[in-house]
Every structure is written in C-alpha cells, then in structure tokens.
Amino acid sequence: MPEGRLTSGWDDCSRGDWDTYLAACGKSSLEQSWAYGSAVAAVGGRRVQRGVIRCDGEPLAMVQAFVLRRFLPASLVQILRGPLWLRGCNSEERRAAYRAIRDRFRWRRRELLVWMPELPEAPESERLMRATGCRRMVTGYSSLWLDLRQDSAALRAALHGKWRNALRRSENRGLRVRSGPGEARLDWLLERHEAFRRKAGFVGPPAALVRAIAADAAREELHVLGAYDDAADDRSEPLAGILLFGHGRSATYYVGWTSAAGRRAQAHNLLLWRAIEALKASGTQWLDLGGVDARHAPGVARFKLGLGGKLFTLSGTYI
Q: In angstroms, rounded to a whole number, what is the distance separating the alpha carbons of residues 247 and 40?
C-alpha cells in the first residue's frame, strides 16, 4: 500500500461515531461495542483504547482493546473479536490494517498483546496473523450467526424439526411472555444465572459484568424476556428468562436460565423465538447465538444448533 494512504487514530472517537461505525459493520461482535468496553473498564479495572483505521481519510476498520497495567512486568493488552470492517477491502489494505494494530502494542514497550481476531478458521487467516508477527496459542471460538434479514416464515422453516415442534408445544401452552429492559426481571435473571454459574462451575459471563453492560447499553439495546405460566398473577416469578444485547445491526444472546417447570414447558424455545421476532421488528439483521461448545456443553450446543443458524469458528487467540 502506498505510504500515507493508511492512518490510525486512537481514543479520538466519540460514542456517537463509534455506534455509527459499528452499525456500518453489519455483522458485529458484542465485545467491540462501546457498552462492553465501558463495562470491562468498570468491573475489570482495565483501560479501554479504541482505534479507527482510515484509508485515504475514510474509516476502514475499528478495534477496541483492553489494557491491564497491573500485569507486571508488562501491561496485558487484550483484543476480543476485532478489528471489525466498515466496508470491503482488498488483501493489501487488510494486511496494512492488521500491522497498524500490531504496531500500536509492542513488547519493546512492555506490552503483551493477546489477540483473538474476528477471522475465520482458515489457512489464509493463519498466514495473515503470522505476517503480522503473531503466533497462535489457543484454538478458535465457535458460535452461530442467524440471518434475521429473512422473513419469519423462512426462519421458522429453517428450524430443526424437534426445535420447531418444541416451539409449537410451548406456544400451545399459552405461556405469557413479557419483554423490555425491566430492572426487576433483569435482577431476577442475573441472580439465578450467577447461582447456576457458580454451582455448575461453567465459564460464563459473571453477573457483575453483565449488569455493567446493561447499565451502559442504550435502552433499545437491552432485551430481557421472561416466560410466565398463563395462570400466574403479576407477582409471580418467570418460569424462564433470557437476555440479549443489541450492538449496531447485530445482537448477541448472552444469558439464559430456566426452571424445571420452564424446561417441561419448552419455555426457552418460545422466548428465543419471540426475541427473534422483536429483533427483526427493530431492524436488527444478525443474531449471534453466543457461543457453542459441543464438548463441554453438548445440550446447549444442540439447542442452539436447532435454530438453523450458520456455524462459524474463529481462527484462534494469538500473541
């Protein structure tokens, strides 16, 4: 790339501009949203650095990094699922952008960069990261993208048969679904999520981080849904609940919990389907189902795969 065509600016972007850029990316990761960065800073004691890579003065890519200064004898810098691309680019521009990010954080300045790029698992991705000066340490993260640009009939037809039958049974039970950013419902869900996370010992987002993201997210980016028995009064607790975060034109399914009664009623199927309908109505185009791990959580993986989304695996984590 000719010298001077590509520039990078750090910490000079307003939240409004960041949100505009995130929307331009289409498919975006929650970890690159402003609310997630603010939450990590508040809960994890890290400093957030946000960079915008420009080509000929026009925004090309965006990346958010988290810096932990107490990691002696060096600072630990973490990039999760970035950079994101605001437009299409050629291979030369892509390589130059990755080098610009790598040059921002160098070991000679006592900065250890741990980087999980938003790159698919493929030989080309491995070559790109090696050319950037990074080597892979951990294999890739997997999840599913659900394309919400399809109409509801197509989405429903794409559901796996058992999943669709469970949804139909849940609809026929007449469960009531309440949605919105209700604080009481969020508190209820996070209390149960955290209790289950500690009891089962699974790796999942701690309630403090989830609460901090929710506190910083815009009202329209927070989707909390609860399923109630049709005979329950307004003071009854939900049978199940889910939480999704919007970010740009995408959203991520982030937290879910169900009771024994909720499992019998297949309440989770109904909640996710209603969430999909609500996201479509709001203009959201993509839903990230929040990770699949067939080895350690096979039941959860089967449930998410039943939605008929497209499985993806990222290239891995590099230093």
A: 16
